[in-house]
């Protein structure tokens, strides 16, 4: 079994799992990289998973459906053309011999879902793998559209409670810019400084910083660290009304929207 990140536009990644014959893809915002990978590796497209409705996650669906030999799964509470099977919290998806559990992870959008691949033998990931869409990025999280800050904080806390060796597969390569913000949100964090140096080196070589892990994100992601005293202090300086996790998180997310480094 292989896990591949197919680069698309605007630092998007379309994730693909293949068993050597069949493939599953996640959030195909562009059909072209998927079609090329299928042709190059002589794979058939067995299924598609969708986390939410935004165009950079679903624009490739119409073209891919022409060759798709299975269903498109998508969130129950989002209006998306081309979804065959809707899923919500606790529903399971069985494809390529793997079992995925759907989790409601609202916040970026009100109906966002993530897909948690349950443990299976012979996989490249050690235990669990999560396709988390735009809920969590490495060292960051998605903007809030029609969800709420409270929802997004809860979703992130839920992901952070997964086993530390869980692989997290976001849809965007925003790691460097997120780490620059994390350096401001938690000055003096040596893990952030080291991660930024490593990520800059990887990107300079044209390599990816993803997937990430729960363990890594617990150390470097300010949105998972909004109960840490240093992060709380920075949020208060930015106008947080109090030191509660929700106030700190909300202030950090608003600050990031206008942050430049």
Instruction: Let me know the average pLDDT.
Output: 96
CATH superfamily: Ribonuclease Z/Hydroxyacylglutathione hydrolase-like
Amount of beta strand = 15-25%
The biggest beta sheet is recorded as: 6 strands, mixed
Oligomer: single chain
Task: Describe the SSE topology.
Layout: E1 2-7, E2 13-18, E3 22-26, H1 31-41, E4 44-49, H2 55-58, H3 61-65, E5 72-75, E6 85-87, E7 92-95, E8 98-104, E9 113-117, E10 129-133, E11 136-137, E12 140-141, H4 149-160, E13 167-170, H5 175-185, H6 190-204, E14 212-213, H7 214-220, H8 229-237, H9 245-258
Parallel strand pairs: 3-4, 4-5, 5-6, 10-13
Antiparallel strand pairs: 1-2, 2-3, 7-8, 8-9, 9-10, 11-12, 13-14
Helix pairs in contact: 5-6, 8-9
Keyword list:
9 helices, alpha/beta, Metallo-beta-lactamase, Chain A, 34% helix, single chain, 6-stranded mixed β-sheet
Explain what this protein looks like in three dimensions.
This protein is α/β, with parallel strands linked by helices and 261 residues long. It has one domain: Ribonuclease Z/Hydroxyacylglutathione hydrolase-like (Metallo-beta-lactamase, Chain A). The chain has nine helices and 14 strands. Strands 1-2-3-4-5-6 form a six-stranded mixed beta sheet, covered by helices on one side. A six-stranded mixed beta sheet has the order 7-8-9-10-13-14. Strands 11-12 form a two-stranded antiparallel ribbon. The protein is globular and about 55 Å long. The mean pLDDT is 96.
Brief summary:
The chain is α/β, with parallel strands linked by helices and 261 residues long. The protein contains nine helices and 14 strands. The mean pLDDT is 96.
């Amino acid at each position: 079994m292989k896990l591949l990140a197919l680069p698309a536009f605007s630092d998007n990644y379309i994730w693909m799992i293949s068993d050597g014959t069949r493939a599953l893809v996640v959030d195909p915002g562009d059909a072209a990289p998927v079609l090329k990978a299928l042709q190059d590796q002589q794979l058939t497209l067995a299924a598609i998973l969708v986390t939410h409705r935004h165009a950079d996650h679903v624009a490739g669906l119409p073209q891919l459906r022409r060759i798709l030999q299975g269903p498109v799964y998508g969130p129950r509470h989002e209006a998306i053309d081309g979804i065959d099977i809707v899923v919500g919290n606790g529903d399971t998806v069985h494809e390529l011999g793997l079992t995925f559990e759907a989790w409601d992870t609202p916040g970026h959008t009100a109906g966002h879902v993530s897909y948690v691949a349950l443990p299976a033998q012979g996989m490249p990931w050690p235990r669990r793998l999560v396709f988390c869409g735009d809920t969590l990025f490495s060292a960051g999280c998605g903007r809030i559209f029609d969800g709420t800050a409270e929802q997004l904080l809860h979703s992130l806390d839920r992901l952070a409670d997964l086993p530390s060796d869980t692989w997290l597969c976001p849809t965007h390569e925003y790691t460097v810019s997120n780490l620059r913000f994390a350096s401001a949100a938690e000055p003096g964090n040596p893990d952030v400084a080291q991660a930024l140096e490593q990520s800059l080196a990887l990107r300079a070589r044209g390599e990816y910083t993803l997937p990430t892990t729960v363990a890594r994100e617990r150390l470097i992601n300010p949105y998972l660290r909004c109960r840490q005293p240093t992060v709380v202090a920075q949020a208060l300086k930015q106008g947080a009304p109090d030191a509660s996790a929700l106030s700190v998180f909300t202030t950090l997310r608003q600050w990031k929207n206008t942050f430049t480094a």
